[in-house]
Amino acid sequence: MSKKLRMAIIGCGGIACGAHASNYDNIDDIEIVAVCDIRPERMELIKSKYKSCANAWETEDYMDIVKCPDIDAVDICTPNYLHAPIAIAALNAGKHVLTEKPDAMTVAQVEAMKEAAERNGKVLMAMRNNRFTPAALYARKAIADNEYGRFYAGRCGWIRRRGVPGDGSWFADKSKAGGGPLIDLGVHMIDLAIFLMGNPKPVSVSGSTFREIAGQNEKGGLFDVEDLAMGFIKFDNGACLHIDFSWATNIEKDVRFVELRGTKAGIKIEDDVLSVYGEKHGTPYNEHPQPRGEYGHCVAIRHFADVVLNGADPIFVPQQGVDMIKILNGIYESAETGKEVLL
Ligand SMILES: NC(=O)c1ccc[n+]([C@@H]2O[C@H](COP(=O)([O-])OP(=O)(O)OC[C@H]3O[C@@H](n4cnc5c(N)ncnc54)[C@H](O)[C@@H]3O)[C@@H](O)[C@H]2O)c1
């Protein structure tokens, strides 16, 4: 390792504290040199709570970070509508970018981010923490050993009975979030499913969205997004994926899962627990491996540093972000038009 990666955190709210600064405390390759938030008290909090941020300088204007030649990379933890403008400005200023999910709100934005990364020769990675959980890392090893065969169909979802994020904040404002649970939660589980399937190219989507439960009694703020989205994605290799995401719907209990049907065995990662369903000697078997390890965010951030500092092969490439936003926006379009959308 030649040197530490000098990074700035932009947006010091819930996820920046809970899953970024807290992990930087234990990541030696990264030094947090600056923090940025339009709310000074958020910067004070992150600096006082996390030793990794204690000596960071502060600014309320992210362009101060973008213009600072002493910063190698930015970690964008702002509301969704700011991911693309901040990422593009940082990439054009020669910085590497790690951005929280969703990568962007529109296809035009995410394509512009990819183009800026390529033109400037910089690493652009969107947070995909679910690819790096102990269960996912174990499944990836078993997939590499061809234990499950070819995945040809699957289902995934993050279904909350009652769980609107943000307490009346930007999360349910379409102009700032881009959508509801589909863009907020869908990006996690759809990505994990496609990644474990070997990144087939999505070719068409159809879907429906609803706002039937949430929105009426939220604590102030606009609520102009869906509270439930269901849909169907088809891939160029013939595989398909059924999706189901909600912030509010009348079900028995919350569940977060990816279930894939393989020709040799099926797998399910449900609430971070892996199960394998196969058949041996004419008899069905279920396995429940118990992998242990660090949180997904921590491993994902370490991986970003490894790619930037050591040239490691990136697990995430920007085209996967383009495909993801095409899927999500395609499902919104299909919900509006009532028709299947070709991607
Ligand atoms: N990967 C995950 O598991 C996960 C979980 C939660 C949230 N997220 C994502 O992280 C991002 C932030 O979510 P959150 O829950 O922390 O939201 P939040 O509202 O708690 O935090 C956002 C912060 O950004 C700040 N901000 C707003 N405009 C800014 C600007 N112009 N410059 C600098 N700072 C600005 C706000 O003041 C706030 O402190 C979202 O994109 C969300 O989708 C990811």
List the main descriptive attributes of the protein structure presented here:
single chain, alpha/beta, Rossmann fold, Dihydrodipicolinate Reductase, domain 2, 2 domains, six-stranded parallel beta sheet, binds nicotinamide-adenine-dinucleotide
Description:
The chain has 343 residues and is an alpha/beta fold. It folds into two domains: 141 residues, NAD(P)-binding Rossmann-like Domain (Rossmann fold, 3-Layer(aba) Sandwich); 179 residues, Dihydrodipicolinate Reductase, domain 2 (2-Layer Sandwich). It is 34% helix and 26% strand. The chain is built from ten helices and 15 strands. The strands form two sheets. The chain has a nine-stranded mixed β-sheet. β2, α2 and β3 form a beta-alpha-beta unit. The radius of gyration is 20 Å and the shape is globular. The site of nicotinamide-adenine-dinucleotide has 24 residues, from α1.
Task: Give a short summary of the structure.
This protein is of the alpha/beta class and 343 residues long.
Q: Provide the structure class.
A: alpha/beta
Measured as a percent range, the helix fraction is 25-40%
Q: Which architecture of the largest domain does the CATH hierarchy give at level 2?
A: 2-Layer Sandwich
**Distance between the terminal alpha carbons, to the nearest Å?**
41 Å
What is the beta-strand fraction?
25-35%
Q: What is the strand arrangement across the widest sheet?
A: 14-13-12-11-7-10-9-8-15
Rounded mean pLDDT is 96
Order of helices and strands: EHEHEHEHEHEHEHHEEEEEEEHHE
Kindly report the CATH topology of the largest domain: Dihydrodipicolinate Reductase, domain 2
Domains, number: 2
The major sheet is characterized as:
9 strands, mixed
In the CATH hierarchy, what is the superfamily of the largest domain? Dihydrodipicolinate Reductase, domain 2
The parts where pLDDT drops under 50 for at least 5 residues are: none
CATH class of the largest domain: Alpha Beta
Helical region count? Answer: 10
Radius of gyration using CA atoms only: 20 Å
